[in-house]
Amino acid sequence: MGVRPLYRERKRMLAQTTYGRWLPPQLSEHGGKIDQLIDVLHVFMAVLFIAWGIFFVYCLFRFRAKQGHAARYEPVKGLISKYAEIGVGVFEAFLLLGLSMPVWADYKNKPPAESERLPVRVVAEQFQWNFHYAGKDGKFGSTDNSQITASNPIGLRSDDPAGADDIVSVNEFHLPTGTPIYLRLTSKDVIHSFAIPTMRVKQDVIPGMEIPIWFTAKEGSESEKLREQMVQHFPIEGANWYKLRHMIASEDHKSSGGEVLLAKGADLGDSFVKGKELIESLQKAGVAELVMQPRHPLEVICAQLCGNSHFKMKATMVTHDAAGFNAWIEEKSKGVEFEDF
After folding, report:
1. For residues 232 and 261, is the Cβ–Cβ distance under 8 A?
2. Per-range mean pLDDT, top range of 97-106, 271-280, 314-323, 328-337
3. Beta bridge partners of 119
4. Residue 30: CB partners within 8 Å, gap ≥ 6?
5. Which CATH class is domain 118-221+298-332?
6. How many CB atoms lie within 10 A of CB 197?
7. Given CA atoms 149, 204, 222, 217 in this order, what sign does their dihedral have?
8. What is the pTM (predicted TM-score) of this model?
9. Which three-class secondary structure state does DSSP give residue 260?
10. What pLDDT score was predicted for residue 203?
């Protein structure tokens, strides 16, 4: 691959991974077809809106009340309106049969083979996501609702040898790119909705049911790479801690004397007061702009109002290459350790 193709590929990825005013970045293998359907549908609706708007304005002027003009109450007969209605109906049938149904059938009716996929149990509760991995042995330990505690949110049985190397992660979803991810969703309390906007994944989670859903993250969409591609520049004047509280510095910010005031990878503090003081000190030191990147570029959210703290129900999603994910599994499989959140 030459320099120009590499440049075009990087430019394409940058366009995909920059959050803008439209759809979020599309990083799954199946999501392109969903975006295509959304684009076609919106263009079609825009054409209808403009066409009917023009016709409406035309009618207001053409058939306005005036002297010597009597209204007619017979139905209008014309070939143009008939053909327009037929055309709209045919195109709507195309949207349903030609785009929607094939995308749905391909996505929902063809689960990846067991030998190729990574299974993960997802247990939702107010207000957190619990992710259960089988560990290095590939076997899930059994669970028991009577053993659920604050430190054991899924009730993993300690007397089951299969669960000795299982991994339970609270609000942190790790996955490899390029590998089909097979999720088994259930809920401990109320209806939730598991949603990953960047993967075009959304599925209601129902108490008492286990619902499967699957997707594959594109290779090249590892969190570290995405973080570097999402670098943004903010003028120091007008910089606001509240808007930048989820971001970290992508480079060292130094004073004119070379002193590092904000190190690479550091944030602006854990409170508004600290952030304001740091921004003011950077401004006094002659720093013209903040060069920042998101701390966590990907996340899982709940898309169903599930209670008074629904806004808190988010999980960080970390994508790895195969080697990075295996290293994470190796580290976490040393023994299940639960942390209270």
Report:
1. no
2. 314-323
3. 182
4. 103, 106, 107, 200, 215, 216
5. mainly beta
6. 19
7. positive
8. 0.78
9. strand
10. 93
